[in-house]
Automatic annotation (TrEMBL):
The keyword ATP-binding applies. This is tRNA-specific 2-thiouridylase MnmA. GO terms for biological process: tRNA wobble position uridine thiolation. GO terms for cellular component: cytoplasm. It is found in: Cytoplasm. The record marks H126, Q336 as: Interaction with tRNA. It catalyses: S-sulfanyl-L-cysteinyl-[protein] + uridine(34) in tRNA + AH2 + ATP = 2-thiouridine(34) in tRNA + L-cysteinyl-[protein] + A + AMP + diphosphate + H(+). HAMAP family: tRNA_thiouridyl_MnmA.
């Protein structure tokens, strides 16, 4: 097969490209330029897609003896990921930009361009496994639970999976670094990137304020009493406890958390931890990694990239999904994604629109 190996400049994508070459594929390395003003140097483990990263990727490609190109997708990334991120926070939701990037950039824009140029598939350094099943290729968890990235790949559909390779899913991260060192890759000890790649300093609140400005409002308790003020509701997310700056403490001294963000009224509602517990998720934008579930099905539901999988019942109706969890969990915000599993297999994902409690909805 002719395969585009997406090379970020990190150790994972470097080994993934090497393994695809070892498997006998015709491999071309591609680095995605996603920033219109990439910093010259990376700041520790924060951020990615910098000039330094492109140079690291090129050096690996040279060592492997494969062609290497940089594809400029900065405009697409800004529109489909960054602007979506801002719009979601402005609407009082909490998005996951990594899922949007995988859905719209790495496995839409990148794959579409690769296919248009005559390639057969795309390979990345994600930690997940693809298994041939009775209904086609299936997406499964990686063997290394600490690095499993199947959650952020839950937005892929069956057609995209049929054109994708994840060569690292059967290996742990320490072994990947050992393999990279044995291959003589200079990135063998390079730190992993983390946080949101386009907010390199990790200050999400400051980054959003720079784009949305200030919009002062009230912080109220669950009875409607004003207990503080804020400069922008977009800076708060359900489950947040730190940085609230409340001026009126509870009489019983109980800790308070954000339980709701109301962008229309510019209000942030806070309450005790008990109010955070939900077991009903109404979601939309359903994406299926194979056939869509028929009727009511038992699944495992995960709402964070490395969060706990909760037993649940899911019912799909077109691109809308209702998930009833077997027990309540805290800090689930509209805008987050719920990814559904059947054992290690990823069934699909959806974006949470509303949360609630089963007893309250009865």
């Amino acid at each position: 097969m002719r395969v585009v190996a997406a090379m970020s400049g990190g150790v994972d994508s470097a080994v993934a490209a090497a393994r695809m070459l070892d498997a006998g594929h015709e491999v071309v390395g591609v680095h995605l330029a996603l920033s219109q003003s990439a910093a010259t140097l990376r700041e520790s483990a924060r951020g990615c897609c910098t000039i330094e990263d492109a140079g690291d990727a090129r050096r690996v490609a040279d060592r492997l003896g494969i062609p290497f190109y940089v594809w400029d997708m900065a405009d697409r990334f800004r529109e489909d990921v960054m602007e979506d991120f801002v719009a979601e926070y402005a609407a009082g939701r909490t998005p996951n930009p990594c899922l949007r990037c995988n859905e719209r950039i790495k496995f839409a824009a990148l794959l579409d361009k690769a296919l248009a140029l005559g390639f057969d598939a795309v390979a990345t350094g994600h930690y997940a496994q693809i298994v041939d099943g009775p209904d086609g290729r299936e997406l499964h968890r990686a063997v290394d639970p600490a690095k499993d990235q199947s959650y952020v790949l839950g937005v892929l559909d069956a057609e995209q999976l049929s054109r994708s390779f994840f060569p690292l899913g059967d290996t742990t991260k320490p072994h990947i670094r050992e393999e990279a060192a044995a291959r003589g890759f200079s990135v063998a000890k390079k730190p992993d990137s983390h946080d949101i790649c386009f907010i390199a300093d990790g200050d999400t609140k400051g980054w959003l304020t720079g784009r949305l400005g200030t919009a002062p409002g009230e912080i109220v308790d669950d009875a409607g009493k004003v207990v503080g003020t804020h400069e922008g509701a977009f800076a708060y997310t359900v489950g947040q406890r730190r940085g609230l700056g409340l001026k009126v403490p509870r009489e019983d001294g109980a800790k308070r958390y954000v339980v709701e963000v109301q962008p229309a009224t510019r209000r942030v509602v806070v309450g005790t931890a008990e109010l955070l517990g939900v077991d009903l998720l109404d979601a939309d934008h359903g994406r299926w990694c194979g056939p869509a579930p028929a009727g009511e099905v038992r699944v495992g539901a995960q709402v964070r990239a490395h969060g706990e999988e909760i037993p649940a019942t899911a019912t799909a109706d077109g691109d809308r999904v209702q998930v009833r969890l077997d027990r309540r969990i805290r800090g689930v915000a509209p805008g987050q994604s719920v990814v559904l599993y059947d054992g290690t297999r990823v069934v699909g994902s959806a974006t949470i629109a509303r949360t609630g409690r089963v007893e309250a909805s009865a």
